[in-house]
Design a protein that fits this description.
Largest sheet: none
Structural class: mainly alpha
Mean pLDDT: 85
Number of strands: 0
Number of domains: 1
Order of helices and strands: HHHH
Shape: rod-shaped
Distance between the termini: 132 Å
């Protein structure tokens, strides 16, 4: 209870008595120059932090744009790979069909050599 009363008295004196306030500043080593210097340092630090925040935001936006571009490029690559895979499958089927036709043709040639010769005028 006594501490609360002392605290209230000190606060009232600091608010109301300019001389007490000035004496307290001198006792604890605070004067206007120190306060001004401290405020200037804080202000500079805040400005530097604001610049860094802006740079970081710009970098982050750039990274996000790049990631979006990479995602789109990956989608295009996947589409191209799918098309390539389908084309390879078709090519394999066509080669298989060509080989079958060739094989059938060879057998037919052997079986019908005379007919082919007549047809070609041999």
């Amino acid at each position: 209870m006594v501490m609360t009363e002392v605290k209230e008295i000190l606060i009232r004196l600091l608010r109301e008595d300019l001389q007490v306030r000035e004496e307290l500043k001198q006792v604890i080593g605070i004067d206007n120059i120190v306060i001004r210097t401290t405020l200037e340092n804080v202000s500079k630090s805040l400005e530097e932090q604001a610049k860094l925040n802006l740079e970081n935001r710009q970098i982050l936006n750039s990274v996000v744009r790049t990631l979006n571009e990479l995602v789109e490029a990956q989608k295009r690559s996947e589409d191209a790979l799918t098309k390539l895979s389908l084309a390879m499958t078709e090519l394999t089927e066509v080669k298989g069909l060509k080989n079958r036709i060739y094989s059938i043709g060879m057998r037919w040639d052997e079986d019908n050599e005379e007919v082919i010769g007549l047809f070609l005028g041999k």
